[in-house]
Design a protein that fits this description.
The protein is an alpha/beta fold. It is built from 3 helices and 3 strands, in the order βαβαβα. Helix 1 runs parallel beside helix 2.
Length: 89
């Protein structure tokens, strides 16, 4: 029961090389302080900058996350679709 994940944090990202490392580090630090068992799911939505490299470098230090790479701006498309449905109500 101790190893069971209590919290999943999903972080969508697109061309965020300037702040992704700091964002992930801050989230991990806070979760470690609280003491939750957690996982980070980082969705790289087809970044064309060095976001992928930054995430890979950080993964060597923090092993509690997985990266999902999306090639066709799927996350943005889903978000826009949900937003449009909500706004039409």
């Amino acid at each position: 029961m101790k190893n069971q994940i209590f919290l999943s944090v999903i972080i969508p990202t697109l061309n965020s090389e300037n702040y992704i490392s700091k964002t992930i580090s801050k989230i991990v630090n806070e979760l470690e302080k609280i003491g939750y068992t957690y996982e980070l799911i980082i969705i790289n939505d087809g970044s064309t900058d060095a976001t992928k490299i930054k995430i890979s470098e950080l993964k060597k230090k923090i092993r509690k996350y997985q990266v999902i790479r999306v090639h066709k701006k799927l996350w943005a498309a889903c978000s826009n679709s949900m937003w449009n449905k909500k706004s039409k109500r």
